[in-house]
Here is the input.
Amino acid sequence: MSRLAIRTGGSLIVLIALLITAEILLRRFANISTGGTDELSGYALAISSTWALSYTLHAKAHVRVDALYTRLPSGPRAWLDCLGIVSIATFSVILTWFCWRVLQDSLNLSAISTSTLAIPLWLPQGLWLIGMIQFSLSSVLLAVACLHALLKGDRDRVSELAGSRTMDDELPPNQPAESSR
Here is the structure.
C-alpha cells in the first residue's frame, strides 16, 4: 500500500508541475490564467506529503540524528529504536485524530475554498486524512512488532524494523571496476 501511495503522490506532484508549467506559459504568451493553480498545488503538496509518510517510515528514509546512537551497544540501541517508533506512532495517531476533526468540521460546515474554484474542502482534506490514517496504521503496527521483538530479546529484529540505516545502507553497492579498453 505504501508503494502505491507514494507512486500516486509522486504522480500528483508531476501533474501539478505540468499544470504550473502550463499556467506560466499561458500567462507569458497568451496573457491567460487558468486560476486556482496555487490552490491545487497546495492541496497536491499536502496530500502527496501524507501519502509518502508510510513509505518513508518503512524505507527508513526519515531524518535521524544518530551521532551517539551508532556508538551504543545493541541493547540500548534496541530500546531507543522502540522508543522512537512508539513516539512516532503516538504522534501520528494524535495528528490523525486532529486531521479527522478538521475534516469533520469542514463536513459539518459544508466548507468550500474561498477561491474561484470553490472546491468543497472535504475532498482534499479527505485525501490528506487517508495518508495520515495509512501512516498511523503503519507506525502502530511497526511499534507493536518492535515491542514484541524487544520483549523476546530479538535486538536484531528491532534494528531491522526500526533501526537507523547504516553507512552500508546509504552507500551504493560496490561496482566492479570497468576493464580498460
The radius of gyration is 22 Å.
